[in-house]
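Usage example:
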Amino acid sequence: MTWKIGSLQLKTPLILASGTWGLGDTILDYLSPEEIINSIGALITKGLSLEPMAGNPPPRLLETPCGLINSIGLENPGIEVFLKRYYPRLRDLEVPVIFNLHGTSVDEFLKLVRYLEEENIRGVELNISCPNVTEGGIAFSQSPEVVFQLVKGVREIFSGFLIVKLSPVGPVLEVALACKEAAADALTIANTYPAMGIVSYEPLKVIKGGLSGPAIKPLTLRLVSDIISKVTLPIIASGGVLSGKDVFEYLLVGASAVQVGTANLINPRSVIEIHEELKELLLRHGRLLDKGHP
Amino acid sequence: MTWKIGSLQLKTPLILASGTWGLGDTILDYLSPEEIINSIGALITKGLSLEPMAGNPPPRLLETPCGLINSIGLENPGIEVFLKRYYPRLRDLEVPVIFNLHGTSVDEFLKLVRYLEEENIRGVELNISCPNVTEGGIAFSQSPEVVFQLVKGVREIFSGFLIVKLSPVGPVLEVALACKEAAADALTIANTYPAMGIVSYEPLKVIKGGLSGPAIKPLTLRLVSDIISKVTLPIIASGGVLSGKDVFEYLLVGASAVQVGTANLINPRSVIEIHEELKELLLRHGRLLDKGHP
Amino acid sequence: MKSTRILENRALAERIYLLTLQIDEDLMNKLSPGHFVKIKLPDQRLDPLFPRPYTIHSLIGGHLQVLYQIVGKGTRALSQLTAGTDLEILVPLGRPFPRDLGYPLALVAGGVGVAGFGFLLESLPQEKRKETILYYGASSKESLVRLDYWETFGVTLKLATEDGSAGYKGFVTDLLQSDLSERKFKSILACGPMPMLKRIKEIAANSTIKTYLSMESFMACGTGFCKGCVVPRKGGGYFHICEDGPTFLADDIIL
Amino acid sequence: MKSTRILENRALAERIYLLTLQIDEDLMNKLSPGHFVKIKLPDQRLDPLFPRPYTIHSLIGGHLQVLYQIVGKGTRALSQLTAGTDLEILVPLGRPFPRDLGYPLALVAGGVGVAGFGFLLESLPQEKRKETILYYGASSKESLVRLDYWETFGVTLKLATEDGSAGYKGFVTDLLQSDLSERKFKSILACGPMPMLKRIKEIAANSTIKTYLSMESFMACGTGFCKGCVVPRKGGGYFHICEDGPTFLADDIIL
Ligand SMILES: Cc1cc2nc3c(=O)[nH]c(=O)nc-3n(C[C@H](O)[C@H](O)[C@H](O)COP(=O)(O)OP(=O)(O)OC[C@H]3O[C@@H](n4cnc5c(N)ncnc54)[C@H](O)[C@@H]3O)c2cc1C
Ligand SMILES: Cc1cc2nc3c(=O)[nH]c(=O)nc-3n(C[C@H](O)[C@H](O)[C@H](O)COP(=O)(O)OP(=O)(O)OC[C@H]3O[C@@H](n4cnc5c(N)ncnc54)[C@H](O)[C@@H]3O)c2cc1C
Ligand SMILES: Cc1cc2nc3c(=O)[nH]c(=O)nc-3n(C[C@H](O)[C@H](O)[C@H](O)COP(=O)(O)O)c2cc1C
Ligand SMILES: Cc1cc2nc3c(=O)[nH]c(=O)nc-3n(C[C@H](O)[C@H](O)[C@H](O)COP(=O)(O)O)c2cc1C
Ligand code: FES
Ligand code: FES
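Running the assembly step on the lines above writes:
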């Protein structure tokens, strides 16, 4: 069985989600190269910006019922350092590496993409949906028009595989249609949900960030299903996948591939177990996938 | 301590949420009249329509991680039967009873409200956010303009306390502002979140409905906090309250009162326990409520 | 919810357990065969979110017994509890089995659907037990539990297993069907998986036997609060399994 | 994650437990004092969602021991597990205690923050133990656990309780402070609640003692994957407690 997201061929439909496996420098501590090649269809890097970003002050995390609020604030070493210090080892794994990019303006995104064109990098996921930064991020997702301009601009200079990662809130359908019109290759649905939690009372500490994990799966499953019925672009699902069953359900509603995020935090080997469960489910119920989406 | 939602005075900030305590005919099987009076600030009826509604075919429920998807489809006996058969016993409890209303058009809502004016009923919650009906419901929440017309129309003929129950998705802020402009007295934030789940594979059964329960609390807490900072109307929070701590957190971000929904399904006596926990928290940390919203 | 204590939680088969709970006399007097109980796991963990419903299996010795099978995380967690643990329960829920059961009576059970028949038989006078046949089917011999217990009632016990390891090889509904020609049952009361209930409804459709089916579905509340546990009603609308049932006249519902 | 089995899970005080896990030699050889382990509860329930981190308390007898206190649902659930239960663990995590600890050494522990000092003392040669003072504070006598064990090392043990039920009445940091004038410590290694760590940093600020603090925070991953467990770094930016720590030079971090 081969898996396709539009023109992109993957060995499995499982993709490691941005920001949930660090910068990749320690992944081989937990997974062998064979395991990676056999179980993982693609790797998506941590969100990368032009300049290094220190990220947000603590508290950055709060566990909620079956979920996680994070407010990392896109801590990353910047695209240049990443390309030099972290990317080579990932490239050697021989699994497609997709660059998750964060810009605060169309211009910054274009600059980021130029770096990638130079390095002959073939996959990009535009992060227009991070809820944890004051500039850029989710602000884009409020305006289908701005998103259209952004994606069109990137498309003009980038010939590789172009994914846009949407926010689950705001005018999602309109943004999705704008991406289609601007000739994106696929959509990731979705990033985390804007959330808030009280970390402690005395001293009073609150966190505003993005909610991920199994709590949100019913919401993102619905969103994926709704968008698929209205937008003819391949959809990569991202939200609350912990088991092969979760992946199978996203495939059932029509997703082309599925990202594994928070699960990697719970257990760095989750993707291996998910892959095993998925294989079994495909054997038993795979024919359901050919029957059209419920 | 007394609790106020605008001009409405409540004995406690706890309100039983619409649709989560049946039609009220069996509540005395689980709570004594004293317990009700001492713990519950107000009761909100099941969503009521002009004509009886049979509701949706099964499956109507699916448990998800720390959440519940429901697709009841507003099963109810219609406003007339409710007024005759169910309301008298609720009125006798001497706790404010607020009528949750469902119409498929502005006109239907107005008709419903006229019944209430006739019966001298002083509280209404307009349900413009039910995700489980094909007409009306959440469709209203897509259009701030339609909501404005609806609320204005109701306001003209209804002199009692007028609450609008918003959907957590769509242009929430714009809808909230429209309600304010149309002179609603308060907002309930929010109804359930559109969600989907796979109930079984063979036969393939899916459910599309609304997600409630602790899974969504971080989302609704954020939404309540965001709206409070931008709309000067009293806000009643509804979403994922299981404990006194949950209530306290909604009060902390500025909610005037808090609805208890799914918790009533888990245990019909939840509200009593929640009230006890809340009292203790108010004693220990109550001063935090006077410090402004985080 | 009421507080209760686990007296015993014993494995009868690989995945079938018998749970014994301490209850007071007051509560005991409120219980009738066919009622069910919701059991909350005794911790603060929110997954599973809802207490699970179980039929009252037996009241022998003044204790409330539940016969349950592990199918998912709730039942698995229940199986790991040990004697002495305190639990919250909500009981009685639902309506009892109908009081107008006619005799001869056929009780038809698939798997742990047999549970409720214990309390029923305990409540019947000897002469009615003698006029009762218990059809009890399961996947294999190991899953037919408490045979000694069932035999104490003096009922006729007819067993079926899918793999033939005990009793008739095949479905318990086959047994029932072949008996229908000889025996003049006045009532059937059945509890088990949906395919079994459907089959029984079919079988009985051509007869005048009053046929009752005990239904299951996921329940959020069990108290009639959520309106979620529905079965379509003949003539339109829905019944709520938890408040109108769980036991229904087969003719009244659409499966 | 690796599979392991519970050999014992014993209450030492009302809310403090000692967990003993079976591990193989291979794993044992990878462990150093200061490392921590993430323990997954052995069921399918998704609340709590994340395995919790615990310092390695002891390796005596070739078993991995964890000393933990019940504070919430995860630790409570852990306390209910019994011997024989199989568990998944992720270990070793974090960096060991610094290897350049100077002597005389002050170990300062608040509550179960004492845990990691067991493995450390087990690894020290006798002469270094003798040059070590263990300051150990808790709310009351009952919460000072394993005193016999601590005494076997021949360290000087100085106790403090907030209620005065054992040792000095007051904070363990008071004990440390008053000793600082007489004793010439080369290093301090401290583990406990944040107010204690802050106080130690203050106390040591005016001295030349190399002071290390072992930090805690909620951890989603423990592996450096999420970048969530940060402590501000002197000079800008952040350390990640799980991958750069959990033990830091007090001078390097801002509390
Ligand atoms: C009125 C009533 C009485 C019951 N009496 C008993 C009893 O005496 N003994 C007993 O063992 N069980 C009984 N059940 C069924 C029992 O409630 C379920 O097995 C239990 O809720 C499963 O919980 P879980 O968390 O282990 O499984 P989950 O993790 O919730 O589900 C595991 C799998 O089982 C399926 N499932 C869950 N609930 C049901 C159900 N009610 N019917 C069919 N499939 C289901 C799910 O779809 C899923 O595939 C009764 C149910 C009802 C409604
Ligand atoms: C590297 C490291 C090593 C640790 N070693 C040990 C050990 O050896 N023994 C031990 O008993 N504990 C240790 N802890 C703390 C332990 O991980 C927490 O107590 C545990 O995660 C609490 O889980 P819970 O589900 O019981 O509590 P929760 O339900 O998650 O929380 C209950 C309460 O405790 C607070 N809390 C949770 N985690 C922490 C924390 N890390 N610090 C302060 N407050 C917290 C919460 O804010 C909440 O108020 C360690 C933590 C870290 C990061
Ligand atoms: C700790 C953390 C960091 C994340 N960082 C990024 C990021 O840098 N860029 C991005 O596009 N998404 C980021 N995400 C979102 C995830 O990639 C994923 O889309 C989201 O968590 C939903 O999937 P999940 O429920 O499987 O985690 C992050 C999520 C988490 C939990
Ligand atoms: C079974 C069920 C039925 C509901 N019916 C209604 C309804 O009739 N009208 C309405 O406005 N909201 C209805 N709701 C929404 C609740 O009133 C509440 O706003 C929502 O569930 C979120 O709160 P919770 O997480 O505390 O349940 C229903 C919710 C549930 C779970
Ligand atoms: S389970 Fe809620 S009404 Fe039956
Ligand atoms: S807990 Fe995730 S990086 Fe430390």
